[in-house]
Amino acid sequence: MDLRDYLSFAQILVSGLLIVLVLMQVRGTxxxxxxxxxxxxxxxxxxxxxxxxxxxxxxxxVFLSISAWSxxxx
Length: 74
Description:
The structure is a single chain. The chain has about 70 residues and is mainly alpha-helical. Helix 1 packs antiparallel against helix 3. The chain starts with a helix and ends with a helix.
């Protein structure tokens, strides 16, 4: 196995984690809000929501970094 194989495997794992994180954020808002509907009240993110949001941003940066590195390695 070479570096590209490891990067591909890491990219698959990170993308799965990213999908789970996004679905966890959408779960509590309702189906209409998930499809672009507007929420009736403005709420700030607190506690677990804020942590999930920040973790999602970190995972997106990791995913993009792996993707860029994978392209550069080939």
